[in-house]
Amino acid sequence: MKNNQNIIIAVVLVVVLVIAGIFIAYSDDDRYSWFTTYKHEGEQPYDLNLFRTTVSNSYGEENFREFRNFNIDSIETDDLPALFMYIAGNSYLDSLEKEELFELANQGNNVFISSKSAHSLLKDLFKDCLSENEKPLKERRGKNLELYLRTQHEDEPPIEVAWVVREDKERYDWQYFYFGLCENEGYTVLGEFKNVDQFYPNYIEVPYGKGKLLLHSTPMIFTNFYFKDKPVFNHVNHILDGLDKNSVYYYNPEPMRARTGGGNMGISESPLRFILTHKPLKWAWYLILVLVVIYIVNYARRSQKSIPVFSVPDNETAIYLDVVSRLYRKEGKHMNIVRIQEKLLKRHLYNRYRIPSHKIDDSFYREAEIKLEIDKSELKKLFTLLERAKNNSTLTDKDFIEIDEKIKAFYEKCP
Fold first, then answer.
1. Domain extents for the chain?
2. Which residue(s) pair with 161 in the sheet?
3. Distance CA 262, CA 169 (A)
4. What is the Cα–Cα distance from 406 to 128, expressed in whole angstroms?
5. Strand (E) positions, 209-364?
6. Which tens digit of pLDDT belongs to each residue from 222-237?
7. pLDDT digits (tens, 9 = 90+) for 105-136
8. Predicted TM-score (pTM) of this structure
9. Domain covering 34-277, topology
10. Measured between alpha carbons, how far is 214 from 355 in angstroms, rounded to an integer?
11. What is the average per-residue pLDDT within 373-381?
12. In Å, how far are 194, 302, 323, 346 from 340, measured between CA atoms?
């Protein structure tokens, strides 16, 4: 039996694996991950390879520099003034890296950063007027955004942006700048987005020394999904037009760079997010979970304690009486057999119908008539016959057989 169960389970697992493999192999969405991954060399919808390649081709090999590590790379003095560009979903910058960026701006370079999380950088820029717990970046949750630039012509339509997953627009946390008491102090709003008839600043310019910092909070427009569209392409061109310098330094951090401020944490992803980002890995992960659940259920069933089988105890009294009756019949003592049959009949009436039969009187006949649906007169005839027979020592075989048949007929009449 166990072998059959194991074979069935093995067959089911093989079928599940085959179906999962076919589904993964022929799924149309295999090629795409709809997370906002922002990988610079990635080909997914929300990676940055198209923008990075376009900037590289626009400046040419001589003027395009890829900046990988603040410990190793540096900006050449011949390139000054230069444009330093950093696009990221989340900007992981330690204190010494931020100082390097401030120093680049102080020397007359333009530092352009488009990121959803630049809290620490903004806190350092506006530390004189921001309170300790105040966040200079806030969230606006919604679907469609309309993006505007202050420098664009009035007749130019805004571009529309949304987080699109396959063909559906999903709600997303859009970041905008909010400085509280620092409003309009030390910065200029260059762009904003509109959501539900409200405008929120998403692009600002902060003068710093001889150069400036340009901070943008909607990096999605630089991704492959949007940058290929002409309206978005023109919008990004408007942003970068005023920032052109001799050279561009495109910051593409090493995945596990040794950071300037100590520690070895780079821009990282959790292993589970990496798995869920890639469709084959995601379905393999789900399949593993299903197999683990099947294994646990099967193991629990096999290790469950078996319920012991209890057999109904034999009616020892009935067996004894049956043996005795056969002895009496052999000896020709018919009246003793009748007594035994009467006892068995009374026990049957009590055990099955709960009719007390220790005393045969009117109450017994009334209750027996109701429960057995047998006429009272017929009941009286049977028990009167039994009473006479068990006291008749001259009972013949013919009389005994007649009584036995009447008892059997009574049993058959009982419901």
1. 34-277, 319-413
2. 145
3. 40
4. 114
5. 211-216, 247-251
6. 999 999 999 999 999 9
7. 998 899 999 998 887 788 888 877 777 777 88
8. 0.58
9. Rossmann fold (3.40.50)
10. 100
11. 84
12. 102, 51, 10, 10
